[in-house]
C-alpha cells in the first residue's frame, strides 16, 4: 500500500494537466472561429486544393505507374498538414500581440498545457481534412483504402505534432500576425512544390533532389504515400520507377528514415521554441 500511495497524486496531477490542456484547446478554438475570415482561409484553401488537384488529374494519366489523381491524394493529405504552420503561426502572433498569452500566464494553467492546447487547436482542422480526403479518394477517385492504416495514423499524428511545434518556435521570430501571413503563405506553397506533394522528386532539378528529402514536409508525404498506396515511396524518394509493393511490417521498415527525420525536426522545433518563443510582445521567453 505504501509503495502505491505516491501513484495517486501523480495520476491526479496528470489528470489535472490534461484538464488544463483541454480547457486551453476549447478556448483556442473559440478565439479561432471568432476570426471567421482567418478560420475559413485555413479550411477552404487547403481543402479546396486537396480535392481540386486530385480531381483534375483523375483519369488523365499516370504518375509513377499510378493514376494521377490517386497519386496526388496522399501528397495533398501532407499539404493540409503543412497548413498547420499557417494556423498556429498566425494564432500565436495574434494572441501574443493582444496580450492573451500574457494574461494566460497569470492563471493556474501550466505553460506546457497552454502550448499543447494551442498546438491541438491549430492541428484539429487539418487532421479532419485528412479524413475528408480519405473519403473523397474512396468515393470519387475510386482509390484504395489505406494499405497500412496504422502507419498512416502515425504519419498524420507525427506530422501534425512536428508542424505545430515548428510553427510555435518560428512564431517568436515574426513580429505581428499581418507580417506572418505574408511570410508564411508563400513558404507553404513552396513546400507544396518542393516536397513531392504534387509531382515526384525525380522531376525536380537533380541538385535539389537530395536536399529537399530532409524537409519535414517531404518526410510526411513519403510516409503517407507509402502507407496509403502500399508501395515503398520512402527508401528512394527520387526514383522515377514504380516503387515495389510492401507489406505491413515492410512499410514501417521502409519509413524508418522519414520517421527519424520527423523526430529530429521535433527536437529542432523544441529548441527554436525555447530560444525564440515570446509570451509578451515586449519580452523574449
TrEMBL record:
It is found in: Cell membrane; Membrane. GO terms for molecular function: ABC-type transporter activity. Residues 29-280 form the ABC transmembrane type-2 domain. Keywords: Cell membrane, Membrane, Transmembrane, Transmembrane helix, Transport. It comes from Amycolatopsis echigonensis. It holds the Pfam family ABC2_membrane. The chain crosses the membrane at residues 36-56, 68-89, 124-143, 149-174, 181-201, 251-273. Belongs to the ABC-2 integral membrane protein family. One of its GO terms (cellular component) is plasma membrane. The lineage of its organism: Bacteria, Bacillati, Actinomycetota, Actinomycetes, Pseudonocardiales. Coiled coil: none annotated. PANTHER family: DOXORUBICIN RESISTANCE ABC TRANSPORTER PERMEASE PROTEIN DRRC-RELATED, TRANSPORT PERMEASE PROTEIN. This is Transport permease protein. The keyword Aminoacyl-tRNA synthetase does not apply. Signal peptide: none annotated. It comes from the Bacteria. It is a multi-pass membrane protein.
Amino acid at each position: 500500500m505504501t509503495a502505491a500511495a505516491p501513484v495517486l497524486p501523480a495520476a491526479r496531477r496528470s489528470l489535472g494537466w490534461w484538464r488544463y490542456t483541454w480547457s486551453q484547446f476549447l478556448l483556442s478554438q473559440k478565439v479561432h472561429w471568432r476570426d471567421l475570415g482567418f478560420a475559413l482561409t485555413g479550411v477552404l484553401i487547403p481543402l479546396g486544393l486537396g480535392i481540386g488537384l486530385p480531381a483534375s488529374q483523375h483519369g488523365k494519366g499516370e504518375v509513377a505507374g499510378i493514376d494521377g489523381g490517386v497519386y496526388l491524394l496522399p501528397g495533398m493529405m501532407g499539404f493540409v498538414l503543412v497548413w498547420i504552420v499557417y494556423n498556429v503561426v498566425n494564432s500565436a502572433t495574434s494572441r501574443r500581440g493582444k496580450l492573451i498569452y500574457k494574461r494566460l500566464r497569470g492563471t493556474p494553467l501550466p505553460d506546457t498545457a497552454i502550448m499543447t492546447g494551442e498546438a491541438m487547436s491549430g492541428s484539429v482542422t487539418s487532421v479532419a481534412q485528412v479524413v475528408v480526403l480519405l473519403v473523397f479518394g474512396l468515393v470519387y477517385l475510386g482509390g484504395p483504402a489505406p494499405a497500412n492504416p496504422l502507419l498512416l495514423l502515425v504519419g498524420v499524428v507525427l506530422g501534425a505534432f512536428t508542424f505545430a511545434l515548428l510553427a510555435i518556435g518560428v512564431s517568436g521570430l515574426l513580429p505581428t500576425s499581418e507580417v506572418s501571413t505574408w511570410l508564411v503563405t508563400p513558404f507553404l506553397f513552396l513546400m507544396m512544390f518542393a516536397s513531392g506533394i504534387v509531382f515526384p522528386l525525380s522531376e525536380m532539378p537533380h541538385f535539389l533532389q537530395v536536399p529537399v528529402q530532409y524537409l519535414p514536409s517531404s518526410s510526411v508525404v513519403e510516409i503517407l504515400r507509402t502507407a496509403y498506396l502500399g508501395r515503398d515511396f520512402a527508401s528512394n524518394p527520387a526514383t522515377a520507377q514504380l516503387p515495389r509493393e510492401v507489406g505491413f511490417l515492410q512499410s514501417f521498415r521502409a519509413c524508418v528514415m522519414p520517421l527519424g527525420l520527423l523526430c529530429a525536426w521535433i527536437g529542432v522545433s523544441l529548441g527554436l521554441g525555447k530560444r525564440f518563443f515570446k509570451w509578451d510582445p515586449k519580452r523574449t521567453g
